[in-house]
Amino acid sequence: MSLLAPPAPPPTLVSRSKIERPSLNGHWVRRPRIESRLDRVFERSLVLITAPAGHGKTSTIVSWLRLRNTDAAWLLVDERDSDLTRFATHVAVALDRVVPGVAPELFALLEAPDRLGPRELGESFGEALYDLERDALLVLDDFHAAGTVAASAFIGALLTAAPRRLHTILCTRNSPDVPLARLRTMGEVEELTGADLRFSPEETGQLLRLETGEPVDQALEASVQASVGGWPAAIRLIALSGASDALQRREPVVERHAQLLGDYLGEEVLDRLPPLHRNLLLWASLLDRFNASLLEALAAEQGGKPLRRDEVERLRALELFREIPGLSETWFAYHPLFREVLRRELERTTDAAAIAARRRSIAQWFATAGLTLEAVQHLVALDDIPAATALIESRLSDAFAREDWQLVASWLRLIPMEAVRESPELLLASAWVAYLSGRDALLADILETMRAAEIWHRATPAQRAEIALLTTIPEADP
C-alpha cells in the first residue's frame, strides 16, 4: 500500500476540450511577417493579439506552434469562466501540461480557508511558478469571453508576478482590462492588431489558389482583398462558396456566398452586439459613407440613450468599415461585400416602409448638412424625384456662384432626363454645365429643347434671358 497521498482533485469540474490545442484543418497560408512577430514571445512576458472575429487569431497561433514545433499550455476561455474558481482551475490544469506537477500546488491556493481575491490569487499563481526549469508558454484564447473584472484582475496580477520563464499569448476581440503600462515601458509586450492580421492581396491570392485549386490573377487578389478588407475568414468563405469566379467576372455576389458570409457575420458579430449597435450596423448599410454624427442621428431615432463616441470606436474596431482617406473630416465606408450582406439582412428583417422612412430621414440629414449629392441619392432611391429636383433647384445659385459647376453636373446625373426636361431651371443648369465643359453638341440639343413651346411658356423672364444669352454667346474657351 502506497504511503503517498493521492493527487488533489481540481476544485471544479474540468472541461478537457477547453485545454486541447485546436487542430489546424484545411489549407493555411505561411505568413512570415506574423511568424517573426510571434517568435519574439520568448523574449517577452506577453504577446497581445487584439482583433475582431474573422481575423484568424487562433489559426495564426496554431500554425505558428506547428511550424516551430513548440508546445503550449492552451486554454479556450468561454462565458463560464466568469466564475474565477473555474477560470483559475483551468489555467492550472493547462499549465500542468507543460509544467507537470504544478497543478496540485495551484489547486491548494483555490481551496485555502481564507479565499484569496483575484489579484492576490494571480500573484500567488505567479509565485508558485518561480521554480520553472525551462520556458513555458501559456495561450489564453478568446479571453474577452470571460468578461469579468475578476478574470482580468487575476490575469493582470499573474502577468506582473510571473517569472520571466513564463510567456503568455493573450488573444481577445476587445482591449483587455489588464495593467499593460508597466509591461510596455519595460519592453515586455509584443502587440498585434486586426491591421496586422489582415491578409494582403498576395496572401489572399495564395489562400484562393489553395482552396479552389485554380490560378488567381493579381486583379482578382486585389479585388477580393478589398471587398472584405482582408478578413481571412471572409476570404476563405468566398473561396469555399465559389464566389471568387463570380468576382473575377465582375458578377454580383452569388447567393451561396451571401448566405455563408451572412451566417458568419450573424453568429460571430451581430448576435454578440447590443441591439442598438446591431441595428446601427444594419441601418448604416444604406449609406455609401457615414460619420460619427450621422451614426448618432440614426441612434437617436431608435430612442434610448444617445450614442457615445466610445461606442462609435467599438463599432469601428469590428473592422467592417474603413476610414475614407483624403477627406478633411473623418468619414467611413463599409468594405463592399460586408455592406452587401448587411443590407440583405436589413431588407430581410425590416419592413419596407420602415426602411423608406429611415432613408428619408437620412436624406434630410444630408440636406441639412449641406451634402446635396448624398441627399439627392437617397431621394432618388425613394423614387421621390420631385423632392430631389426641388432640392437641386434650391442649391443651384450658390453652386454656380462658387463656380462649382462640376458639382452641379454630379447632381444632374442622378435625375432621370425626362424629369430634367420638365424643369426649365434644371435645363438651364444643364445648358450651363454643357457650355462650361465645352460640350457644344449637348448644349445645342438642350437649347433646342428649351426653345420648344411647352418649356418656353413655363420659363420666367429671367430664364428666357439666360436662354437667349446662351443662344447668342460667342464660341470661345469657356
Please outline the helices and strands.
Blueprint lengths: L31 H7 L7 E5 L6 H12 L4 E4 L7 H15 L4 H8 L7 H11 L7 E6 L7 H13 L4 E7 L8 H5 L3 E5 H4 L3 H12 L5 H10 L4 H10 L1 H6 L6 H14 L6 H10 L7 H10 L7 H9 L3 E3 L8 E3 L1 H14 L2 H17 L3 H10 L3 H17 L3 H8 L4 H4 L3 H13 L3 H11 L2 H6 L2 H12 L6
Parallel strand pairs: 1-4, 1-5, 2-3, 3-4
Antiparallel strand pairs: 6-7
In short:
This protein is α/β, with parallel strands linked by helices. Helix content is 56%, strand content 7%. The chain contains 26 helices and seven strands.
Please describe what this structure looks like:
This protein starts with 31 loop residues before the first helix and ends in a 6-residue tail after the last helix. The model is unreliable at 1-5 (pLDDT under 50). The protein has helices at 32-38, 57-68, 84-98, 103-110, 118-128, 149-161, 181-185, 194-197, 201-212, 218-227, 232-241, 243-248, 255-268, 275-284, 292-301, 309-317, 336-349, 352-368, 372-381, 385-401, 405-412, 417-420, 424-436, 440-450, 453-458, 461-472, and strands at residues 46-50, 73-76, 136-141, 166-172, 189-193, 321-323, 332-334. Helix 3 packs antiparallel against helix 4, helix 9 crosses helix 10 and helix 13 (255-268) crosses helix 17. The relative contact order is 0.07. The chain is built from 26 helices and seven strands. It is elongated, with a radius of gyration of 31 Å. Helix content is 56%, strand content 7%. The protein has a five-stranded parallel β-sheet with strand order 2-3-4-1-5. A two-stranded antiparallel sheet has the order 6-7. By secondary structure, it is an alpha/beta fold.
